[in-house]
Design a protein that fits this description.
Elements: E1 4-10, E2 14-20, E3 26-33, E4 45-46, H1 48-65, E5 73-80, E6 85-89, E7 99-100, H2 108-115, H3 124-127, H4 136-146, H5 150-155, E8 159-163, H6 164-172, E9 182-184, H7 185-188, E10 194-195, E11 200-201, H8 203-209, E12 218-220, E13 223-228, E14 238-244, H9 245-252, E15 261-265, E16 269-276, E17 287-292, E18 300-307, H10 311-319, H11 329-334, E19 344-346, E20 364-366, H12 374-400, E21 407-410, H13 417-427, E22 431-434, H14 439-451, H15 458-464, E23 467-471, H16 477-492
Helix pairs in contact: 9-14, 10-12, 12-13
Length: 499
């Protein structure tokens, strides 16, 4: 009798495996970082083979730490950094180059080329997304154009593509020896190549982008039994869940009803609002995405506000500026001052995502004076996350016509009290953290456990959700509006940094 459900959570900076009990509580966790590769300004890569090695290590470690065997695991779910693209040889399992990460901006010329006919929203009604460097389709085209022999091999059927979920699933289920080449609807909806209504690859858009459809994985539900793990400690376990990380967090926060929303504070920030079985087109700079699909049920859609750089800005203080030795130290440094000292940091390292979608924006420090010290920089770093989230919440309110009453939050940065209080102050609504803050892995485990009967229904999952802490707004509205006005002014300074 299985006692647990498990998840492999392959993120932008690290990979973790987690085992959960029936109550949704963490039994064990193993986590390892992988290298961030920056070949040129604006370029971001990962070594897909290193990611696969880390994945195997953390899965075995989490199983061992739980004191469990494969027989104890009802199902394994996968969740992943979403738009990061891998192209590899189906015969050897060798990637043709490093994975191109979602933050990477090298496809800006291709995006401009595609936009020349029909503008940035050329494909939006079909795929829910603006043309932007963020999504995987143009990345695949770039690889085929720039790796010697890649286009010929792709057209002869030897090369295949996947986001990281597809790469991990293929390797987990045998790799070159019969590995499953699949993805789920939530990940497929991040490629710019899937029709939101039919949930199938759009041959016309793939043709425009120059991506052979023979490279694309089969699209499946987010919660169904795909096959068995063929290697490592999880050998024989049913692989039964696959969700892009932000959709997985929405699932883990049990936002199953229309109108429920969550905000994840990770490398970037991602606010998702459940819009039910209807794909709502945004008029305010958000994107339309598939939230999840359980088995044969209809898909559930979401509006999403994607912010590229939030937690990554803290890492930048640590790794590039050497202002802190570990990410949690930022709170103490920020607390050494009473306010931001007039400094605003807009971290448009990869351009601006929602609600602006400006690939040619770049980051700025605005309002610098001789008065500003390291504490102010740390504080402005945290505040940048809250300001960007407010912009997305305002867009969400405008699109949905429903004002936010509270905000459910999760992810690594929600341990930061200073940030969470400032977020509540800036939004003017309570911010609520659940007991299990790592809801991304939990959502993937839930998807797998639903497919294998470990949990019977969404109601079982709802019963597991419990509040850990809430922050009530304390700032007066005049102060809030003044701060926000300066933020908006700072954002305009990033626009059109280069032609």
């Amino acid at each position: 009798m299985a006692k647990y459900a498990a998840a492999l959570d392959q993120g932008t900076t690290s990979t973790r495996a987690m085992v959960f009990d029936h109550g949704g509580q963490v039994v064990s966790v193993s986590q390892k970082e992988h290298e961030q590769i920056y070949p040129k300004p604006g370029w971001v890569e990962h070594d897909a083979k290193e990611i696969w090695e880390r994945s195997q290590e953390v899965l075995d470690e989490a199983l061992s730490e739980a004191g469990a065997s494969a027989d104890d695991i009802a199902g394994l779910g996968i969740t992943n950094q979403r738009e990061t693209a891998v192209v590899w040889d189906r015969n050897t399992g060798e990637p043709v180059m490093n994975a191109i990460v979602w933050q990477d901006t090298r496809t800006d010329k291709l995006v401009d080329e595609f936009s020349a006919d029909g503008g940035q929203d050329r494909f939006r009604t079909k795929v829910g997304l603006p043309l932007a460097t963020y999504f995987s389709g143009p990345k695949v085209r770039w690889i085929l154009d720039n790796v010697d022999g890649a286009r010929e091999k792709a057209e002869s059927g030897d090369l295949i593509f996947g986001n990281i979920d597809t790469w991990c699933i293929w390797n987990l289920t045998g790799g070159p020896d019969g590995g499953l080449h699949i993805t789920d609807v939530s990940n497929a909806s991040r490629t710019m190549l899937m029709d939101l209504e039919s949930l199938s690859w759009d041959e016309e858009i793939a043709s425009v982008m120059g991506v052979p459809t023979s490279m694309l994985p089969e699209i499946r539900a987010s919660s169904e039994v795909y096959g068995e793990v063929k290697s490592g400690g999880f050998q024989g376990v049913q692989l039964a869940g696959d969700l892009g990380d932000q959709q997985a967090a929405t699932f883990g926060q049990t936002c199953f009803s229309t109108g429920e929303a969550k905000n994840t504070y990770g490398t970037g920030n991602f606010l998702l609002l459940n819009t039910g079985n209807e794909a709502v087109q945004s008029k305010s700079g958000l994107i339309t995405t598939v939230g999840y699909k359980i088995g044969e049920n209809k898909p559930v859609y979401c509006l999403e506000g994607s912010i590229a750089i939030t937690g990554a800005l803290v890492q930048w203080l640590r790794d590039n500026l050497k202002m802190i030795k570990a990410a949690p130290e930022v709170e103490e440094l920020a607390s050494s001052v009473d306010d931001n000292g007039g400094l605003y940091i807009v971290p448009a390292f990869s351009g601006l995502f929602a609600p602006y979608w400006k690939s040619n924006a770049r980051g700025v420090f605005a309002g610098l004076t001789r008065y500003v010290n390291a504490g102010h920089i740390a504080r402005a770093t945290l505040e940048a996350t809250a300001y960007q989230s407010r912009e997305v919440v305002e867009a969400m309110d405008a699109d949905s016509g429903v004002a936010l009453e509270s905000l459910k939050v999760d992810g690594g940065m929600v341990a930061n009290d200073l940030l969470m209080q400032f977020q509540a102050d800036l939004l003017g609504v309570p911010v609520i953290r659940p007991q299990v803050a790592e809801t991304t892995a939990l959502g993937a485990a839930y998807a797998a456990g639903l497919a294998t009967g470990f949990w019977n229904s969404e109601d079982d999952l709802r019963e597991n959700w419990a509040e850990d802490k809430r922050w009530e707004p304390k700032m007066d509205s005049a102060q809030r509006d003044e701060y926000y006005q300066y933020w908006k002014k700072a954002v305009t300074r990033t626009f059109d940094w280069f032609d």
